[in-house]
Design goal:
Helix content is 76%, strand content 3%. By secondary structure, it is mainly α. The protein starts with a strand and ends with a helix.
């Protein structure tokens, strides 16, 4: 088999142009919104802190993550040509998985940053100095790369027979395993193991960090201090809930519970919807970011 067919949203033929317009504007919003966050965090002196350093990298990551799926989906909706070569499919899946893993790790690092800032504020400048921030950021970007290259090679070493139709809008593991011949148990176990390492463990560590953060905030004597501390964390909590909630259900639920419609909905949520709302969450709920944005606008 040399190519696949991405069915995407072909089950609703009357809405193809409508979906193209919607997703096109969503893509523009994501690019512009996250691009603005990267710009203001690099140019405004007030935002030269570890929290905004990680936010800038997170916004850049979101641009890359969305660009791994949306351009191909827009092309398919516009041209109605849904074929994708085996190599292109493997490349797309590899990048989606790598960038998804990096996002999980980066959200964990951002939670650690908030933990140190609130639970150990006196040592925060020492612990989260620029060198440490760069090292943590680099570790996030490097860690998942060899794992996902190996996983992609393993998936595409399987023999594919019968149908070449992938009932999804991008090349993802669950729909591809449905097209594979023979026993895929080892592949499924690898997917589960990687999901536990890169999704479940970071999620649990984030929960642990925020349990400590909430405990510390509740002990603050000042109501103003409690409100300010909660406000600095609330944006991150919302993003974590949106991203990890859909990712955990997608990759950690049993194969028997998988359905094409549910898989597409959940994937749409964590690959497109969450990145779109990130911009609003991190700017509209953040006074410093809003002030930097006003300075940027004429």
């Amino acid at each position: 088999m040399t190519e696949f067919i991405l069915l995407g949203f072909s089950d609703i033929p009357n809405l193809q142009m409508f979906l193209f317009v919607i997703f096109f504007f969503v893509y523009v919003i994501i690019l512009m919104g996250n691009g603005i966050i990267v710009l203001i965090t690099k140019t405004d002196q007030v935002l030269q802190t570890p929290m905004y350093f990680f936010l800038s990298n997170f916004s850049f990551l979101e641009i890359c993550f969305v660009s791994a799926t949306l351009p191909k989906m827009l092309t398919n909706l516009w041209t109605q040509k849904r074929n994708i070569s085996l190599f292109t499919c493997a490349t797309q899946m590899c990048f989606v998985l790598m960038l998804g893993n990096i996002e999980c790790l980066l959200l964990m690092v951002m939670a650690y940053d908030r933990y140190v800032a609130i639970c150990d504020p006196l040592h925060y400048p020492l612990i989260m100095n620029h060198k440490v921030c760069v090292q943590l950021e680099t570790a996030c970007w490097i860690t998942g790369v060899p794992v996902e290259i190996g996983q992609t090679c393993q998936i595409f070493s399987l023999p594919f027979c019968g149908s070449s139709q992938i009932n999804h809008f991008f090349c993802d593991i669950p729909p591809l395993l449905k097209l594979a011949c023979g026993d895929t148990f080892l592949n499924e176990m690898l997917v589960f193991t990687v999901a536990v390492l890169f999704v479940m463990i970071p999620f649990l560590l984030i929960l642990g960090s925020y349990s400590k953060i909430i405990s510390t905030i509740l002990r603050l004597p000042s109501a103003t201090g409690r409100t300010k501390a909660f406000s600095t964390c609330s944006s991150h909590v919302i993003v974590v809930a949106m991203f990890f909630g859909s990712a955990v259900i997608t990759y950690l639920r049993p194969k028997s519970k998988h359905s094409s419609r549910t898989d597409k909905f959940l994937s749409l949520f964590y690959t497109i919807v969450t990145p779109m709302f990130n911009t609003m969450i991190y700017t509209l709920r953040n006074k410093d970011a809003m002030m930097a944005l006003r300075k940027l606008l004429p």
